[in-house]
Amino acid sequence: MKKLSIFLLFIYFNLGFSQDVPTSFTLQEAIDYALENNRQAKNAARDIEAAKQQKWETTATGLPQLDANISYQNNLKQQISLVPAEFFGGQPGEFQEVIFGVQHNVNATATLNQLLFDGSYLVGLQSAKVFLEISKNAKTKTDLEIRKAVINAYGNVLLSEESAKILENNVAILQKNLDETTKIYENGLEEQESVEQLQITLSNLKSNLNNAVRLRDIALQLFNITLGIDYNANTSLEDSLEDLALKNISLDMLTLENDVTSTVDYRIAENDKKSKELLLKLEKSKALPTLSAYLNGGYLGFSDEFTFLDNDQNWAGFSTLGFNLNIPIFSSGKRSAATQRAEINLEKAEDDLTETEQRLNLEIQTAKSNYKFATEDYYNKKQNLELAERIENKNQTKFFEGIASSFELRQAQTQLYSAQQELLQAMLDVVNTKAELETITNNISDN
């Protein structure tokens, strides 16, 4: 009975754990889940916590530091010294062996250190703050990239699923046409070439369908990995590709000003410039004196026997107050070279910031252009599909009426199949180019 209870408890906890992972996602749900569970996102969050601890670690360096030390010494074989024997009433020229000290001694001390002034410590406090900002910006950058990766992965799964559905439908329709054409051919009312043309088209469609199914499985596994769940998890997507495309058509994105200073890439480059400025200040601060104070105190105990735990043990107390002043005077040009090197690195960071600003302006313009083209191309491909469907329907009717040839029908079918895939790709391009523009500008809209 006890074993059964343990087994049921184990099953309960495993079921409870498995229920924490959803099995179906809208796009926004997938993004939210990935931002919490993606491995890179979790590590970026840990980096922020580590930066907070490092900030306090740096701050604590300038706060009082208290250390204690207890040492015990047992002189197993005490050192013998020789003194003139006449000190003890002996003959001149003779020496007497004596032992100075006792066999056991204990030294217990406590030291309080306080930093009073250190230029590098002040710079370190500023650097810790900048390092925390760098970690936060890195987290924002990671979240943006994960969001884009989820959108791309989600769209690829939908593309492969929609492609497989369309191909399955096309195969079914073409198989029906082939069966009808074969019967007509067997009755002597159609040429063999017509049957063969349809067989070629059907064979290509089946091959594309098999490939689409394989790509769907791979795309779903990549989606699972991006979310931070087991890559073989049986997940499903709730949104459709067309719905996502329509939701992401918003020309308001094209009217936004190119404010590169609000982008995370610009802030990262700005953080790099600040860190280089602080490194320059650090090298300059090394030429300043440092001042610290200390206060220590303790007790000494001596005995020929180990009596330090007795109440009547005698202890000798002591205490010291002192200051340490370190004044850098001459370093053979070492500090000067380090300062000049820091100045060079700062100049490089300033140029990198300028280049980042210009590059971001260009990337935003390019992303806007790509997004606008993707939107226009979607409507164009949608119109082309409607035309291709009408053309294929007409040619199919003409073919079975004996007016159009099998070659003309195959051309119309091939054109229809291409138009179908092009429209799916155009839908995905709308979603992906919108995500790219949002990632660069850090202007996120709900999906």
Write a concise synopsis of the structure shown.
The chain contains nine helices and eight strands.
Descriptive terms for the model:
64% helix; single chain; two-stranded parallel ribbon; 447 residues; four-stranded antiparallel sheet; disordered N terminus; 9 helices; Outer membrane efflux proteins (OEP); alpha+beta
Structure write-up:
By secondary structure, the protein is of the alpha+beta class. It has one domain (23-62, 118-288, 331-441): Up-down Bundle (Outer membrane efflux proteins (OEP)). 64% of the residues lie in helices and 14% in strands. It contains nine helices and eight strands. The chain has helices at residues 2-18, 27-37, 39-61, 119-186, 192-227, 241-247, 264-285, 334-401, 406-441; strands at residues 24-25, 65-74, 81-84, 95-98, 104-117, 236-237, 290-303, 315-326. The strands form three sheets. The chain has a four-stranded antiparallel sheet, with no helix packed on it. A two-stranded parallel sheet has the order 1-6. Strands 3-4 form a two-stranded antiparallel ribbon. Helix 8 (334-401) runs antiparallel to helix 9. It is elongated. The two termini are 52 Å apart. Mean pLDDT is 87; it is low at 1-19.
List the helices and strands and how they pair.
Elements: H1 2-18, E1 24-25, H2 27-37, H3 39-61, E2 65-74, E3 81-84, E4 95-98, E5 104-117, H4 119-186, H5 192-227, E6 236-237, H6 241-247, H7 264-285, E7 290-303, E8 315-326, H8 334-401, H9 406-441
Parallel strand pairs: 1-6
Antiparallel strand pairs: 2-5, 3-4, 5-7, 7-8
Helix pairs in contact: 2-4, 3-4, 4-5, 4-7, 4-9, 5-9, 6-9, 7-8, 8-9
